[in-house]
Amino acid sequence: MQALRRWVESSWHVPLEPVLAQAQACGVVNGYTQPGQLGADRWAALVAARHLVPGALCVVDCGTATTLDVMDAEGRHRGGLIVPGLGLLRTSLFEHTAGVRGDAGASAAGLLACDTQAAVSIGSLQATVGFVERLQQEVRELLGVPLTTILCGGNAPDLLPLLAGDTRHEPDLVLKGLNIIAMNKS
Fold first, then answer.
1. Which domain holds residue 135?
2. What backbone phi and psi angles, to 5 degrees, belong to 52?
3. Which of 14, 108, 152, 169 has the greatest number of beta carbons closer than 10 A?
4. 44-54: pLDDT as tens digits
5. Cα(63)–Cα(161) distance, rounded to whole angstroms?
6. Predicted TM-score of the model (pTM)
């Protein structure tokens, strides 16, 4: 971190300021018992989501891990979940299951597969969609209000066509949140 700090400061003549989740900032109240434990990427995504969409939100970041965070209409982060992302799900099966081989990065379309690699690819995608839909339903019931889901992350385009309801794709959500955080520091 020190080498990065020196490089940024000498190259751009600005101080490097790491982003850390706060107990409260930019209209969002962190729901973690220890606010600093919430990842900076998840924090930035929540901040951006709060500024982009009114009402209750479900933020799903589909990257190496798939994270799901819920925020009520008042901007209170209600908590979240983390599960393996699509690539990790596929890699886990390919590397740890006898007789199951394939490319973890390969994708397949359709509902049912006719070969093992496609079965792992489609099955991982359907498991992730099922996870998101189940949580959406339970959160709607918990909050008792409509819920908008915002997807970001590299695998978001794979999930987007499979999710019903008010779902929005914001590929730059974390960067938008970082910008909002930076603008509120000055």
1. 2-185
2. -95, -35
3. 152
4. 999 999 999 99
5. 17
6. 0.89
